[in-house]
Amino acid sequence: MPALPFPPRHRAARLSLPLLCLAWPLLAAAAPPPSTPPSTPASPPAAPTLDQAIAAQRAALAAESPAATPMGQALVESIRLSELRLCGPLREDRVDCIVRLESGLGGAYQTYRFQRRDGAWILLPLADLAPPAPSRTQAQALLRADLLLRAPRLDDTEQRGRYERAAASLIVSALEGCELDRDEGRVSCDVGMRLPEGDDQATLRFVPQADGTWRLDPPR
After folding, report:
1. How far apart are the C-alpha atoms of 39 and 139, rounded to whole Å?
2. What is the pLDDT averaged over residues 114-119?
3. Torsion over CA: 150, 153, 154, 160 (sign)
4. Which residues, if any, are the signal sequence (predicted)?
5. Structure pTM?
């Protein structure tokens, strides 16, 4: 007689398996649904959208006192926010953004500071704000990539070697004094660099991109 796949004390359980198979759909239907873990609440956005920035600017203009003359008031009312180029990192509930303003007299870039309050963004009435700028790590990566791109184009072997060594070891030690070009939206910064041949410093320009990254602008 062939051996049973179960010990004798489990024969009843073995014989009842067909019945359990038949009853399984009913048991599964009657079982309570598996519990789902509670969802993690979504983090608040780190910066306003263009529409939110426009709404914040309009609310700020509406809250200001009327201009002294009808012409001045018409000029104030003609100012509109047309572009939200780039926003810096969120610090607590505030973020600085490079925006473009248009009016009857033309357009210009400016730095706006927005604050998140009660689930909405408001515009803070601040002037002469330093613009958002790349971090030292970002500037260093841009400079190394630029040197690596330029090195093969050099005919002088010694100079090409210096570029290649700098591309591998350049360190941005300081990035300060950043200013916004109001006409073109570029950001100029004083950058301190540590190179194999020694320390250096230069004023470099960075172009903010719509996706939140930066591009190094070649010097003129």
Report:
1. 38
2. 93
3. positive
4. 1-30
5. 0.73
